[in-house]
C-alpha cells in the first residue's frame, strides 16, 4: 500500500489550499455559513459534490479548476521560481531594493546621538 496521497483527493486539495491561505477550518466554515465539523468532513472526502465545491471556491477565492488541478509540487515550484528570480537580480517577490547603505545610516544615527548627548 502506497503512503503517497492520491492525486484526485479533492478534500486534501481543499485542505492544502486553505492552509496555504493561512485559514483555519473555523474561518472557512464561517465564510461558507457552516460549522467546523462540516469543513472537516469535506476535507476528509475524496469526492466533493459540485454545489459544495462552488461554495468552497467562493470562500477560498480560488476557482474550481484551481482546486481540481492543485498539487503540492506545483505550489513548491511556483515559490521556487519567485525565489530564483529574486536571487538573479530581477524583481522577484523577495528582491531587496535598498537605495541606501545601512551602515552609513547607522553611523549617522550614532553621530546624532553623540551630538544630543553633548548638548
From TrEMBL:
Residues 14-67 form the HTH cro/C1-type domain. PROSITE patterns: HTH_CROC1. It holds the Pfam family HTH_3. Gene3D superfamilies: lambda repressor-like DNA-binding domains. SUPFAM superfamilies: lambda repressor-like DNA-binding domains. This is Helix-turn-helix domain-containing protein. It comes from Flavobacterium azizsancarii.
Amino acid at each position: 500500500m502506497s503512503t503517497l496521497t492520491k492525486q484526485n483527493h479533492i478534500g486534501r486539495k481543499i485542505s492544502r489550499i486553505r492552509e496555504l491561505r493561512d485559514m483555519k477550518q473555523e474561518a472557512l466554515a464561517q465564510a461558507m455559513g457552516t460549522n467546523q465539523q462540516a469543513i472537516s468532513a469535506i476535507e476528509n472526502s475524496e469526492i466533493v459534490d459540485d454545489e459544495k465545491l462552488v461554495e468552497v471556491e467562493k470562500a477560498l477565492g480560488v476557482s474550481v479548476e484551481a482546486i481540481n488541478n492543485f498539487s503540492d509540487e506545483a505550489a513548491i515550484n511556483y515559490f521556487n521560481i519567485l525565489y530564483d528570480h529574486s536571487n538573479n537580480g530581477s524583481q522577484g517577490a523577495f528582491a531587496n531594493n535598498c537605495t541606501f547603505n545601512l551602515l552609513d545610516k547607522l553611523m549617522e544615527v550614532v553621530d546624532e546621538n553623540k551630538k544630543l548627548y553633548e548638548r
